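Shipment paperwork, digital attachment
Item: protein structure file
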Amino acid sequence: MKTIEVVAAVIQNAEGLILAVQRGESNKAYISKKWEFPGGKIELGESLQEALSRELEEELKIQATVNELVTTVDHTYPDFRLIMHAFNCQIISGKLTLTEHLDKKWLPKSELRSLDWAAADIPIVDLLI
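Attachment content:
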């Protein structure tokens, strides 16, 4: 089974709301249109922090500081294993613009469970609550 290693950002704004983004449609029903924390794959030679900074720039058109590691999730989907390193991040510049996602929501921690999250992101939600 293929293993994919990725990074994810837990971004909290000044009001204490947390950013969730909605994936696009996929032929894999278990991730199609699910909610997730923004991020993506690590490229060869990148540190986890460099990968996350690049992904946030590409996907959301923002620059962010990558702070401490929140958790690492090891989740097995039906056809691949995902290892996801989630970091607390803070936006320092840029206007949040979706380039790959369908939607975005800023939610208080108490409302995070109201979304239909991708399975690998649920342990992060549980930690935040």
